[in-house]
């Protein structure tokens, strides 16, 4: 048996294809991208070595900093929203709906699997103003809040709000299920004991349930922030970064820099800045998690 | 006699009182639950109503859009919206998506299941580092590989072909699939495989005849999870596909609403509905597996 499991040629046969594809299509391009940061140009016009010029450009580029600010702002609000609403939903499932929560759980999860483009198109119709009022503006008009009827996606501030609402709507069911799984793992004897001691409602949640859920809460946070820092699909399909540059995250800035302006080197530099940001944020959450647990 | 009667009466009255009290209590309980029911109801409206609105709007005529309030039910089924959407591109986009996604799914399953077998069942020195290497791929921002991949495909004349998509989808489907698959192999009892070996089976036969059937459920889960990722992919098809006739459903839909969205609301809503329907059906049938699969896929990542 042992001998059979140590068969080198068999191991290579099994792992070979995966390792080959993965190395060529994922690992090599990552290194290649790092090399690109030292060059300027593109695949059609050719490349030119520019040293650290791209990094110098990056630090002085107002568009870059604007995108960093937007990305962080978006990630902050959506992460809090996703995990926060998800947690409330999970508490609702476990403590109020109890065994009857299956159907509600399934329904609220549903938007998670919808194509982002379709959801974004739907939202742009929901918040439409011209040529016809969308659902939201129609409802506002119906309840005589005519002053609130506005081009939601045509203004930076409101476009941001719609984007945040959409992405929380899309993913709250997912985080609800994740945290629900963590919640039902909380031993019921512990809850009983706390109830006997007189804890209930908010206090029970705050001092018994949440501490027991810390590990899963932190993994949800890390997962969420890594997703939201890399937001691309929903922005592209809902606002395409506009109006102006108002809703352009780093991913979209990188995409436009590389493919609209043909600046591969600078585009790669932005991509690395993004990767660096994800790493830092994850590490910060990780460290605070460890401190919290200890 | 009369005493027993009064005793009886007392008993009945007590019972009636008790019943009344119980009913009062249950009414109170029901009232106590009312705010909760309202909250759950509102929640479901917020999640489901936009989709109902989307579907009902897809059956409206241009006249209805102009003259009726937007929440009004459609007067009839304007199927011509769907016909128009289908004929002005959605049919092609659908076919392109299917031809890119399903070959990729097969490749992902075949490659990742054998890799996971090597990583979890077989014994060799570098298996932990290699597993970690695959895991790292889950964290990488896709923007990091976009430009080198574009260069490679451009040099190989693969830009604007579905091969660019199939290759990329397969490679980026691997990290999560290998990782999940390794987990499934972990739960296969070793004794079963040992028995097969004692019967004189080769390692390939053990893999194919013994291990593979035991992780069939895992294969279904991974296929489901990856289907949603690939079907909903926007970034890669946006980057590697340029001509309209090669667009997949996501870029196709973007293009469609860009062209018709302002004027023809009916066909636009129909096109959006068409993009939603396959995932909807899959979810209706397999929702529990989908939920479990997606949730397990993320937490370990």
Topology of this protein?
The complex is a heterodimer of chains A (294) and B (301).
Chain A: H1 2-5, H2 8-36, E1 39-42, E2 46-49, H3 53-60, H4 62-97, H5 101-109, H6 116-126, H7 135-142, H8 156-183, H9 188-196, H10 201-229, H11 233-238, H12 250-260, H13 264-293
Antiparallel strand pairs in A: 1-2
Chain B: H1 2-57, H2 62-67, H3 80-120, H4 127-139, H5 143-155, H6 162-186, H7 190-198, H8 203-214, H9 216-231, H10 235-240, H11 249-260, H12 265-299
Helix pairs in contact in B: 3-6, 3-9, 3-11, 3-12, 4-6, 6-9, 7-8, 9-12, 11-12
Question: What is the mean predicted local confidence, pLDDT of chain A?
Answer: 87
Task: State the major sheet of chain B.
Answer: none
Q: Which band does the percent of strand residues of chain B land in?
A: under 5%
Report helical residue fraction of chain A: over 70%
- Structural class designation of chain A: mainly alpha
Distance between the termini of chain A: 44 Å
Assign the CATH topology of the largest domain in chain B.
MetI-like fold
CATH class of the largest domain in chain B: Mainly Alpha
Low-confidence stretches of chain B: none
Summarize the amount of helix of chain B as a percent range: over 70%
Q: Mind telling me the CATH superfamily name of the largest domain in chain B?
A: MetI-like
Q: Can you say what the CATH homologous superfamily of chain A is?
A: MetI-like
Quick one: biggest sheet of chain A? 2 strands, antiparallel
By helix and strand content of chain B, what is the structural category? mainly alpha
Q: Order of helices and strands of chain B, N to C?
A: HHHHHHHHHHHH
What general outline of chain B do the C-alpha atoms trace?
Answer: flat
**Which architecture name of chain A does CATH use?**
Orthogonal Bundle
CATH architecture identity of the largest domain in chain B: Orthogonal Bundle
Description:
The complex is a heterodimer of chains A (294) and B (301). By secondary structure, chain A is mainly α. Chain A has a single domain, classed as MetI-like fold, CATH 1.10.3720.10. Helix content of chain A is 74%, strand content 3%. A two-stranded antiparallel sheet of chain A has the order 1-2. The radius of gyration of chain A is 24 Å and the shape is globular. The two termini of chain A are 44 Å apart. Chain B is an all-alpha fold. Chain B folds into 2 domains: 56 residues; 220 residues, Orthogonal Bundle (MetI-like fold), CATH 1.10.3720. In chain B, helix 3 packs parallel to helix 12 and helix 4 packs across helix 6. Chain B is flat. Chain B starts with a helix and ends with a helix. The relative contact order of chain B is 0.12. The mean pLDDT of chain B is 84. At the A-B interface, helix 1, helix 2, helix 4, helix 5 and helix 6 of A face helix 1, helix 3, helix 4, helix 5 and helix 6 of B.
């Amino acid at each position: 048996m042992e001998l059979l499991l140590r068969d080198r040629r068999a191991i290579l046969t099994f792992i070979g294809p995966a390792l080959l594809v993965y190395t060529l299509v994922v690992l090599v391009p990552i290194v290649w991208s790092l090399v690109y940061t030292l060059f300027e140009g593109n695949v059609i016009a050719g490349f030119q070595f520019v040293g650290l010029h791209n990094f110098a450009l990056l630090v002085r580029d107002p568009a870059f900093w604007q995108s960093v600010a937007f990305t962080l702002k978006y990630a902050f609000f959506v992460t809090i929203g996703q995990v926060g609403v998800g947690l409330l939903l999970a508490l609702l499932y476990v403590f109020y709906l109890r065994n009857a929560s299956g159907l509600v759980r399934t329904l609220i999860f549903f938007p998670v699997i919808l194509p982002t483009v379709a959801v974004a198109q739907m939202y742009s119709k929901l918040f439409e103003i011209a040529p016809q009022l969308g659902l939201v503006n129609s409802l506002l008009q119906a309840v005589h809040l005519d002053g609130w009827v506005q081009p939601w996606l045509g203004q930076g501030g409101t476009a941001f709000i719609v984007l945040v609402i959409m992405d929380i709507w899309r993913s709250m069911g997912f985080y609800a299920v994740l945290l629900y799984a963590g919640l039902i793992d909380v031993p019921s004897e512990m809850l009983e004991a706390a109830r006997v001691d007189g804890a209930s409602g908010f206090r029970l949640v705050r001092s018994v349930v949440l501490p027991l859920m810390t590990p899963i809460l932190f993994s949800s946070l890390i997962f969420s922030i890594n997703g939201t820092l890399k937001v691309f699909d929903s922005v592209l399909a809902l606002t395409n970064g506009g109006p102006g540059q108002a809703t352009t995250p780093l991913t979209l800035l990188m995409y436009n820099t590389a493919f609209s302006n043909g600046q591969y080197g600078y585009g790669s530099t932005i991509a690395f800045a993004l990767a660096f940001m994800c790493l830092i944020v994850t590490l910060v959450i990780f460290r605070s998690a460890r401190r919290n647990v200890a | 006699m009369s005493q027993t009667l009064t005793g009886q009466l007392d008993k009945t009255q007590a019972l009636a009182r008790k019943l009344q009290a119980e009913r009062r209590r249950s009414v109170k309980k029901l009232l106590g639950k009312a705010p909760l029911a309202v909250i759950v109801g509102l929640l479901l409206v917020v999640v489901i109503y936009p989709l109902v609105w989307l579907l009902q709007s897809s059956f409206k005529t241009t006249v209805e859009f102009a003259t009726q309030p937007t929440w009004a039910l459609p007067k009839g089924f304007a199927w011509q919206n769907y016909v128009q959407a289908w004929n002005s591109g959605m049919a092609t986009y659908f076919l392109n998506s299917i031809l890119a996604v399903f070959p990729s799914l097969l490749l992902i399953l075949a490659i990742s299941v054998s890799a996971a077998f090597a990583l979890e069942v077989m014994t060799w020195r570098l298996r932990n580092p290699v597993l970690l290497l695959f895991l790292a791929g889950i964290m990488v921002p896709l923007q990091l590989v976009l430009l080198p991949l574009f260069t490679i495909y451009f040099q190989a004349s693969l830009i604007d072909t579905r091969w660019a998509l199939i290759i990329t989808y397969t490679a980026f489907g691997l990290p999560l699939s290998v990782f999940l698959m390794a987990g499934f192999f972990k739960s296969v009892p070793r004794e079963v495989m040992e028995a097969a070996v004692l019967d004189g089976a080769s390692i390939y036969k053990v893999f194919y005849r013994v291990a593979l059937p035991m992780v069939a459920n895992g294969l279904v889960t991974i296929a489901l999870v990856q289907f949603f990722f690939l079907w909903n992919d926007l970034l890669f098809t946006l980057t590697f596909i340029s001509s309209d006739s090669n667009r997949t459903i996501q870029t196709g839909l973007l293009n469609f609403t860009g062209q018709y969205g302002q004027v023809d609301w009916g066909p636009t809503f129909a096109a959006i509905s068409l993009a939603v329907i396959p995932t909807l059906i899959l979810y209706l049938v397999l929702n529990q597996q989908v939920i479990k699969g997606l949730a397990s896929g993320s937490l370990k990542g």
